[in-house]
Predict the structure.
Amino acid sequence: MIEIIAVIVACLFFLVGLAGTLLPVLPGPLTIWFGMLVYGIITGFDDLGALFLVAQILLALIVMGVDYLFSALGSRYFGGSKAGLWGAAIGLLIGLFFFPYGLLLGPFLGATLAELIIRTKSDQAVRSGLGASLGFFGALPIKLALEAVMITWFIIRII
């Protein structure tokens, strides 16, 4: 019975973690890892070993690195600044309230507006917005794939 509760709790963390892949405010991969840790604490780490948890935290850190790297490279490649990155993140959050169009337009509009606030050239601001959006969406498949590996490995481990 306790193992069923532990699996349910871990799955809730996994769902929140996967949501965090889209929401830059939530640390998605770390939340997924924390779900595994909580499972281990509840079950006494019977199915999980230290090596497994270390490998999983490394995967979580890689996912976070991919996210930052793609957004930064996308924005930088198109001439953006840190303000553009922050604008893209805030635009994404606001855009979630206007799903599905807000999800597509939010990062672009947020980065563009942030760049316009600190710069005078509108064409550069639009390019930065485009770069931040492309970086964010370009990283999504990789992040989701790595998180799927994390969760699948966990499931295989506990079965």
Remarks:
- Residues 122-158 form the longest helix (37 residues).
- The mean pLDDT is 87.
- The CA atoms of residues 14 and 32 lie 5 Å apart.
- Residues 2-158 form one domain.
